Amino acid sequence: MSKRIVVIGAGFAGMWSALGSARLLDEVGRTDVEIVLVAPEPELHVRPRLYEKNPGGMRAPLQEIFQAVGVRFIQGLVERIDVVSQKVELVGLGGDTSRRKLGYDRLVLAAGSRLFRPQIPGLEQHSFNVDQVADAAALDAHLASLARRPESVARNTVVIAGAGFTGIETAAEMPARLREVFGKDAAVNVIMVERNSDVGPDLGPGPRPVITEALTELGVTWKLGSGVAAVDANGVTLENGQRIETDTVIWTAGARASALTSQIPAQRDNFGRLHVDRNLKVKGIDTVYATGDVAYASTDEEGNHAAMSCQHAMKLGRIAGHNVAADLLGATPIPYSQPKYVTCLDLGSWGAVYTEGWDRQVKLVGAEAKALKTQINTEWIYPPSADRAEALAWADPHYVVVA
Predict the structure, then answer these.
(1) Spatial separation of the C-alpha atoms in residues 222 and 216, rounded to whole Å
(2) 370-402 pLDDT tens trace
(3) With contact defined as beta carbons under 8 Å apart, do 346 and 373 qualify?
(4) CA nearest 109: which of 269, 229, 285?
(5) Phi, psi of 37 (to 5 degrees)
(6) Three-state SS for 28?
(7) What CATH superfamily is the domain 3-114+255-340?
(8) CB-hemisphere CA count at 13 Å for 176?
(9) How are beta strands 189-194 and 220-224 bridged, if at all?
(10) Least enclosed by CB within 10 Å: which of 3, 23, 302, 314?
(11) What are the extents of the domains in the chain?
């Protein structure tokens, strides 16, 4: 009797989970396990690049890869997970909008994360973000439309709410993007607003001098110690009462795991991520694995946990895919471990900063780090070709990127 693995999500973790399962099944010559991936579209949205211009082009097709390795793709949106009956309920997209239930023997939840939007007056109506392709495309169109507005300080001012990783990368891109719209000699004003007392509060003190130097040279400024209290059509009001007139507010402050995690009766962290064991099985649920941004997973024995990043999602996906198939086959799982941690922060035309370790020791800066960031963004994080052998080789849980 055949078995079925259902993967929810086609992001970095979901894609690699499906390929990781296919690899192990191919390796042992088993054809009696079906792999089904459910997602709104058969494409990988390259979210780490959505702060760049032309975000509509940040998509990588997956259908041919899935067909090459024997993964069945269903275009749909999962609305309900029933861990007791081992079924997911989904609504079809595209040509088939019917509702259906899909049974599984093992489930891999790889539904990713979404930008967290708190209940700030006017935030939903009057701000932009770079969380999803459609969101970033809306910002792109808005920036282009500013050229048709009368010149004013507000038109030429962009406020970035949040000075974390995404906020810094977005802010660093903005001066050049605005001058493409207004002209190379235009006076532009890019301001980051951060409730914490430092730029890059989660990045620590290691790379901060490089970041502040780069932002200063790019002309980006920041206001610290007070978050956004309200947003309206003409600007933002800060919690300290200060007012900034602007036509463009970009919200970048924080992410939360997919709401589907709330349907799994298991422990979650403050970001909604499911607690998993070292094999990425949800603790207390024998038939469900969680991976990528929905997994609260230990990376090492030092107390560190995976971040919501493609760096961790790619490895998490490969391991989850291998282990969920191994679970059905009675094969040996591979405990998830990712002790090496790096960051490469894009700093626009100034360059970038590359660090190693959870304490973020700076190793490369400027043009040298920018070259590495470009390679990461344009090569390393993209899916393999539709060649079956290559796709399965890249899905090896021990796969290591070689420059």
Answers:
(1) 10
(2) 999 999 999 999 999 999 999 999 999 998 764
(3) yes
(4) 285
(5) -115, 130
(6) helix
(7) FAD/NAD(P)-binding domain (3.50.50.60)
(8) 15
(9) parallel
(10) 302
(11) 3-114+255-340, 122-251
Q: How many CB atoms lie within 10 A of CB 31?
A: 9
User: Given a cut of 50, is residue 96 above it in pLDDT?
Assistant: yes
Residue 231 confidence (pLDDT) = 98
Phi, psi of 3 (to 5 degrees): -115, 165
Rounded to an integer, what distance in angstroms lies between the CA atom of residue 66 and that of residue 84?
Answer: 29
- Phi and psi at 294, nearest 5°, equal -95, 5
- Residues 50/139, Cβ–Cβ less than 8 Å: no
Read off the pTM: 0.95
Quote the pLDDT of residue 260: 98
| pLDDT above 80 for 113 | yes
pLDDT higher than threshold 50 for residue 345? yes
Alpha-carbon distance of 354 to 365, in angstroms, equals 6
**How far is C-alpha 308 from the geometric centre of its chain's CA atoms?**
6
pLDDT at 1 over 70: no
